[in-house]
Amino acid sequence: MKIRVLFLKKSYFYYAAAILALVIILAVVLIKKNTTVDTFNEIVDNTIVKADLNGDGKEDILYVKQDGTKYFIQVTINDHPYYLEPSKTLNTLGSYTPHSPIKITLQDISRDKTPEIFIQGMENDKNIIHVFKWNRDKFEDIFCSSSNMLGFIDSGTNRTPRVMLGNFVPKGIELSTYLLLGSSELKSFSYNMPEYFMGKDTITAFINYLQSFPQGESNIPKSIFSDNITGKDLALFGKLAGESNSFIFSNGAFKDISWNKEGEVQDIIYSLNFKMKSSANAGNFKPYTITIKLRPEGENGSYCYKIYQIK
Questions:
Q1: 202 Cβ partners below 8 Å, 6+ apart?
Q2: Proportion of the chain above pLDDT 90, given as a percent
Q3: What is the mean pLDDT of the chain?
Q4: In terms of CATH architecture, what is 194-311?
C-alpha cells in the first residue's frame, strides 16, 4: 500500500493564518461590543446580576433580595458570601415601594478593572444613593447621599472618570462633580457647568413636559428634539396622554456612550424613572421608565443636545 503524503504550499499557511487572525479580531470586537453596558439595572423582586466584582477575571454573583419592605444585597465570590452593609451615616439600602424599585449600576470609576457598585433607592419617599467598592477582602460603603440624579462622564475615554450627583428641580438639574481619590475617597470638586452641560436643559424640559400630562400633551417642546427623531418615538406622548396618565419624577441616571477623536461627548443615554398614575389603575402609582438618547447638534447653547431616540 502506498502512503500519500500531502504537502501544502507556504501560501496556504499564510492564507490560513490571515483567516484565523481575522476571526480573532472579529471575536474581540464582538466581545467588546457585548460587554459595553449602556443601560441601568432596575431590580424587580429578587434579582441576580452576574459580573466580575473583585477583578480576578471570574464572574461573580450579585443577589438582591427583597424581604418585606427591606432590601438586602449579597455578592458571592468563589462561593464566599459578602454582604453590602450601608454606612452608619445612611444606614439603609432603601425600602421597597411598588412605584420606585431599587436600581443597580456597575461602573469602573477607578480604572482598576473592578466596577464600583452604585445603588439608587428610596427611604420614606426620599432618594438615597450608596457607592460600594471592593477593598481586598470586603465591600466598603465609600459614599452615600440623598441625590435623585446619578451620572458618569468619560466612562470610556482615557480621561479620569467623573461621577455626577445631584437633584432635579423644576428649574433645572443641579449637579456636583466627584472623583475617586485613592482607594476609598469620593471627593467633590468645583466645576462650572453651563445649563446645556450633558443636556441638562434638554432633560429638564423633557421631565417638565411629561409632568404636565395629560393636560399639557399638546405643548410639546419641539426645540429639544432632533429633526431626525422618528414619528414612532414621538407617538409615545400621544399614547400616554390618551390613557390619561400623570407622571411624577422619581430619579434618574445618565452616562456618555460615544466620543469623537478629541474625546468630546457624542452620545448620552438617560434612564428617567417616574411614578405613573392613570384612571385605569384606580389612582395607584406604578413605575414607568423612559430611556432616551441625546447627541449634540449645532453650536453650544440652549438645547444644543437633542433627543434622537425614546424608549
A1: 196, 224, 294, 303, 305, 306, 307
A2: 56
A3: 84
A4: Roll (3.10)
